[in-house]
Fold this sequence. Notes:
The protein is α+β, with helices and mostly antiparallel strands and 452 residues long. Helices cover 49% and strands 9% of the residues. It is a multi-pass membrane protein.
Amino acid sequence: MSSQAAMAGGPAGPVPPAGKRKSVMGTRPWVAGLFLLPALVLLGALVVYPIGYSAWRSLFDADGSGFVGLDNYGEVFTNDATLTAVKNTAIWVAVAPALVTALGLIFAVLTERVRWGTAFKLIVFMPMAISMLAAGIIFRLVYEQNPDQGVANAVVVGVHDAFADSSVYPNARPSQVSDLKASGGGAFTSRGTVSAGTPALLPLVGIAPNKLPDDPADAKAPTAKAEAGRISGTVWLDFKLGGGGEKGAVDAGEKALKGIKVEAVRDGKVVASASTGAEGTFTLPKSADGAQLRLPAANFAAPYNGIEWLGPTLVTPAIIGAYAWMWAGFAMVLIAAGLAGVDRNLLEAARVDGANEWQVFRRVTVPLLAPVLVVVLVTLMINVMKIFDLVYIIAPQPTQDDATVLALIMYNASFGGGGNFGLGSALGIILLLLVLPVMFVNIRRLRRERQR
């Protein structure tokens, strides 16, 4: 009857008392509150109480026995270590989210144009299944300084050696009976000059015979008779296992040094050069007559060992690279989901109007994906503010202070041997205050999207 009266324009049915009203979904408020009670209890116990206790504990000293007010906060902004942590945290917030979001956007757009896009997305997303601890261990090995162990330096050294010659005798030096003397910059030059008909003997030491590369042949003494006025000589290792032999003379069993560059120098200018052969011998043209012999520093330069990835300068960028490797898949999946909802007619219309692919991407695709990009960026900004695991695992102890962040300082101050829970609580509250503006922006964005 009440529904018929309402349809006929008559008076509506009786309104229930305020205390017995139901929600739009037909549930009484106290029933909804009863179901929410467990979640509210957990929220209070795991979030509200720890925040309140940390704020209260930050006003006391290390053992909690004395009230110090805001002294712990003052120490945060006057201590060099915490100021370094603040600077590094700012670098993380400014660089890491933008880098990961850009990589995710590039991957999401490009994988739409290849047939094996799904397989590529699976590979890029796979690191998300790895814990921060495992990723830290992996990249600690990747950034190992020794090229034989670290993948990054193995690649760098391989590329470097492809374009620059590397020495195979980095520890070699002239023997005491040699006429060669140090001439600066790592080179060795003979005191006297050479002449045709007189063999040039250049004995070296400083290398164990069993450490020579490529199983070298025995050295051969140069011929005393010069060939058409040329200068001949030998560069060899003037030492053999077991000892014996005459110093400064090529003895049986002594090894040749292949590939040594020999220069003839007159008045500071190189007039001729040659490289030793398999038996250590070399021959210089007539123009070398009367010149000094020099072994350039390139023969003895230490081998290139790559980049010091975990040194004071590059440790933070290196760790950010490891973070990007882990989280690029997360950004790619979210952005690809947003890209799937983009109206393709808009992209085709832009192409019909004469826009090239770069213009379509920059002026159409990116603006349409702006809400998704903001979600990814804000999520990553909150995530990097509490970054801890990667820095703690990857950065070696000598450079950990250069890579430290607020979360790591908070851990070290409280549990890492510092035992100062007052300072640790103050750092935790500061982290919370830094996260709040980002959370506020995210909440406002969510409300605006609901109003649409």
